[in-house]
Every structure is written in C-alpha cells, then in structure tokens.
Amino acid sequence: MSLDRPAEHRPYTLVAELTYRCPLRCFYCSNPVDYARHGEELDSATWRRLLREAEALGIVQVNLTGGEPLVREDLEPLIEEARRLDLYVNLITSGIPLTRERLARFRALGLDSVQLSIQDVAAPGSDRVAGLRSFERKLEVARWIKELGFPLTMNTVLHRDNLDHVGEIVALAERLSADRLELANTQYLGWALLNRKALLPSRDQLDRARAVAAEARQCLRGRMEVLFVLPDYYTDYPKACMDGWGRRFLLIAPDGRVLPCHAAHRLPGLEFERAGCRPLAEIWWDSPGLNAFRGEAWMPEPCRSCDRRTIDFGGCRCQAYFLTGDAVATDPVCRLAPRHDLVEAARAEPRTPGAYVYRAPGSRRSAARRGAVRQRLPAPADQGHGGLEVREQW
Ligand code: SF4
Ligand code: FES
Question: Which atom of ligand 1 has the smallest separation from the CA of 299?
Fold first, then answer.
C-alpha cells in the first residue's frame, strides 16, 4: 500500500449512489447514459459495512442518492447505521415515491437533512423536465419535510428553459420555507451533453439570472441561503470539479465501483475497483483509477505551469474526455486550453429548443436512434434532483 497519504486527499463526503432506478426521466440526468448496463445493486449488508469502513477512513457526511434512493426498501437500516456511526446523513431525492409516514420514520431514525429537486416554478415546465407528472407531489413533500422539522434544500438545475424564471424559483423556495436554495447550472456531461443544443442558454440569459440570484442572496441573507453554482461554457476557467479528483468526495456507484465522480467509469483505460474486494481505505489510497489524476504530475501544459492549478486542479477530467476524447487534456472550458475552440463552437451552435432526449435505458446511440424517446415538446410556457457535486459557487 502506498505510504504517501497527504491530508488534502482525505475524503469527507461519501456519495452513496444506491441505485440508478428512478421514476423520473430528466433529460439532464447525471447518471451515465449506459446506466441500464450497470443495473446490479449492492445489498443492504454490504452498504452497512461500507458505511463503517467509510467512517473509519474519515468520512463525516453521507449523501444518500441515486437514481432515486427512495426506491430502495432498505433506506431505514442504512440511515440507522450511518447515524449510529455519527455521520451526517443527507437524503437527495425527487420526492417520488414517498409517504409522510416513511419520512417521519426517517426523522425518528436520525436523518439530518433533505435535498429535494424541483425542476421549475410550475407544473408544465417541471413535469416536462421530469418526464412525469410530479410537480404538485413535490410541493406536498416539501411541506412534509418542513413540518417534520428537517432542514430543506431545494435543488433546481438551470438551463435555457428555466433560467428566465430564477426570480420565481427564489419566490417558490421562500414559500416552501426552504433553508437553502441550490441553483445549479447544468453541467454538460452524459444526458445533458446529449441535450446540449436544447439546453445551453445564451450569455444574456445567464447574466440576467445571475444578477437576480445575487440580489436574492443579499435580500434573504440570514433567512435562506441562495447558492448559484457557476455555469461552465461561459466562464473563463473551469470549476474544481468534485473539489479535485480523489480529494474530498468518495463515490460508490450502485454496483459497488469506487469512483472520484459519477462519470469517471466511462473514461477509457482507467481501472476502478469494486467495494468489497478489499477494504475501502486500501481502494481509496491505492486504486489506480483514483490515483490517475491526483496531484499535478499528470498535468499537461498550460496547467502544469499555471497559478490556478491549485484552485481548479485542471478542471473536469470527464468534461475533457467527452469533449476532446482525451481525459488528460486541459478542460476545454478553460480559455487557455488548446481545445477551447470546442466550447466556443458549442456556444455558437444553433439551438434546438424543445428537442430533448429523455433518460431511458440503452446506450447513447440507441437512445438517440429510438424515436420513442426523442420527443419534440411544446415550447416552455409560464414556467435534478441535481446530482453533481461542484463546490465553486457564491
Ligand atoms: Fe485551470 Fe489548467 Fe486552465 Fe490553469 S490552464 S486555469 S490550471 S484548466
Ligand atoms: Fe468526473 Fe468532473 S465529472 S471529473
């Protein structure tokens, strides 16, 4: 086992992707486009053991997420075990399916907080994103969350169709007595990359939304925290994706692969181990995949000699791969990147508003081919759960 265990690579948060199953079909879902090929799920006893191993490794918070974690019938024993280990337990959910009785059970078992996704300010827009009539139910779930005394974070993923509603989204979060509103601009990976031409906003839209969110943040200080996760494609530099590769976040996929982020298993040539084959601590420190982009030795120029390399860690490896075909390349979002032209070209592309490829079983290619999942929907009228962990925001 490696003796080199720098403190900056001690993980704090376990992202427990319990399942890829989900009743919603959001077209920017952060689950891999080939999720149906990874349908296997760890059993409850293995998850409880992994919680113990994660705590021993230094983890202090566990995010129970998916897919939709509520579809697992064993959430109760997992919450109970995590609380017994004194971990902070956060449930990230669409709210579908949930009953008030089950939520009350979670409360009694010690669940600490709930992040609820609401896709837009009214049913037409929210349900169109979800591919399911779900908006009214989500409002009801938000009320239960508050009635039962949980801190509520409302998650809304922002894109071309709802960026002009940010003021109303803030008002909705206030009405629901949310403690925190997370406005996360879409990150263009997986399903969202497939839908980029429909989802990518204009710079004017982003600027207006950002100003509205900044004012709300100021006005609501002390009552509700408003986070605006900075958008890719319109920034000069990339975000520190996942706070750096294999630094703070340890993600376990439904089938047990131990990853630095939700998309890394799609990068060719990297070897990620399955939890359970050997202790989690050994995997965290020694797995070739988790070590592939730690530190700076892997960086090409211009990152290698750039002052920002300790701030953004060279950006997102998955974005670099999906845009350039090379996971080692400088993230093309960076204005200094040799392939920044790819992002400039995407910004200049003609948009295809309303033409979405919904999340559905099958590969990217087969999903795009199947007429049944490509639907042209009406333009937004009056109108995820957010999956990514991106920490750069204000
Ligand atoms: Fe970040 Fe690399 Fe761009 Fe510097 S050159 S800002 S380290 S992505
Ligand atoms: Fe994998 Fe950014 S999503 S490194």
Answer: 2
